[in-house]
């Protein structure tokens, strides 16, 4: 286990010197190997990270490096397809938020009217299901002849990260003093809603520097995010106390893990969902990343966990069903896209 001081952007340099934040790198290998002697220290490190900045990087995990590499190459090949091939899979053609999102298709910083739309392309995949409840339905894939093997490697990666996310929820439970299996009904539900969204951030030439943004400032909707990023950089996390932004430097093969709004609610604010964004650094490199969100089972009711409310204290939030929360956040970030809920795929 190790840690490093996150570096800061130039504009924030002065304030940040006083407020450097630590994003710990946590090796979960011993936990995955069933080492019960080492596990409490790992759970304690997770607790510290989640109670402070809500961001950490996970190493020693179960996703093979070779699979990450094959997956990121396949993702780069997908985004390099002609626009007409990608547009044929546009998310607006899906009743369940799957497929291709063009540049500017989402705006996560809804509070800042001046902010640009997000300068990224995305491709969203979820578990293959029959149409029915919110977010259930078929994925949209490019024809096998156009991108051979893409679907196969994407789904191989999907289920590998899904396994890791289940293990992370078990560690989260231990970190909160709960039974290891406490979150299994949420995180391992066969009908649970998971999203594996790959992103491409185009290079930023000097003439647009400062006017574009990869992803606007936001917190993640769900409980826990696992993000794979390549070596280009640009992800930043907000230090709440000083309002300064800090880079989350790429660590090869690691998963950036962060707490989402549902987990903050569940823990009665003990764990923090932290604002983050992707800036567009001056670069002639394309950046690729992939976020995995395990948002659990739609009917789970999120209310303060045992041990997260002191005697005499009232819970900060009323109980809320996962489905209500996720629907509301989708409508906020996709605007009119929210009206697609329940519409049949064309
Ligand atoms: O691409 C990244 O580094 C971050 C993406 C992100 O924050 C998100 O998809 O919620
Ligand atoms: Fe995010």
UniProtKB/TrEMBL annotation:
Keyword list, A-Z = Iron, Metal-binding, Oxidoreductase
Give a GO biological-process term.
Answer: small molecule biosynthetic process
Q: Which Gene3D superfamilies match?
A: B-lactam Antibiotic, Isopenicillin N Synthase, Chain
- Which residue numbers delimit the Fe2OG dioxygenase domain? 192-296
Keyword Oxidoreductase listed? The answer is: yes
- Decide whether keyword GTP-binding is in the record: no
Q: Which PANTHER family match?
A: 2OG-FE(II) OXYGENASE FAMILY, PUTATIVE (AFU_ORTHOLOGUE AFUA_2G00750)-RELATED, OXIDOREDUCTASE, 2OG-FE II OXYGENASE FAMILY PROTEIN
Family statement? Belongs to the iron/ascorbate-dependent oxidoreductase family.
Q: Name the chain's protein.
A: Clavaminate synthase-like protein
């Amino acid at each position: 286990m190790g840690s490093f001081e996150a570096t800061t952007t130039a504009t924030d340099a002065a304030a940040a010197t006083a407020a450097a934040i630590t994003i710990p790198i946590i090796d979960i290998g011993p936990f995955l190997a069933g080492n019960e002697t080492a596990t409490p220290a790992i759970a304690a490190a997770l607790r510290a990270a989640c109670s402070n900045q809500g961001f950490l990087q996970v190493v020693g995990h179960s996703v093979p490096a070779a699979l990450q590499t094959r997956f990121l190459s396949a993702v780069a090949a997908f985004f390099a397809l002609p626009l007409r091939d990608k547009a044929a899979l546009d998310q607006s053609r899906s009743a369940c938020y799957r497929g291709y999102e063009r540049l500017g298709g989402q705006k996560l910083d809804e509070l800042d009217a001046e902010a640009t739309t997000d300068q990224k392309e995305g491709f969203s995949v979820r578990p293959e299901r029959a149409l029915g409840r919110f977010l259930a339905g078929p994925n949209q894939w490019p024809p096998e002849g156009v991108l051979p093997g893409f679907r196969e490697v994407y789904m191989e990666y999907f289920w590998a990260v899904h396994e890791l996310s289940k293990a992370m929820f078990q560690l989260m439970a231990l970190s909160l003093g709960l039974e290891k299996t406490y979150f299994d009904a949420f995180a391992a539900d066969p009908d649970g809603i998971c999203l594996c969204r790959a992103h491409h951030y185009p290079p930023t030439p000097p003439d647009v520097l400062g006017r574009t943004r990869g992803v606007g400032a936001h917190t993640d909707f769900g409980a826990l995010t696992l993000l794979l990023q390549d070596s280009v950089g640009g992800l930043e996390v907000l230090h709440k106390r000083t309002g300064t932004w800090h880079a989350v430097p790429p660590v090869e093969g690691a998963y950036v893990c962060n707490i989402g709004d549902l987990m903050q609610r569940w823990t009665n604010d003990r764990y923090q969902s932290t604002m983050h964004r992707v800036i567009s650094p001056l670069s002639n490199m394309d950046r690729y990343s992939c976020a995995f969100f395990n948002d659990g089972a739609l009917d789970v009711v999120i209310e303060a966990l045992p041990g997260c409310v002191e005697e005499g204290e009232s819970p900060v939030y009323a109980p809320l069903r996962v489905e209500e929360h996720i629907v509301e956040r989708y409508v906020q970030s996709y605007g009119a896209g929210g009206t697609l809920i329940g519409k049949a795929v064309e």
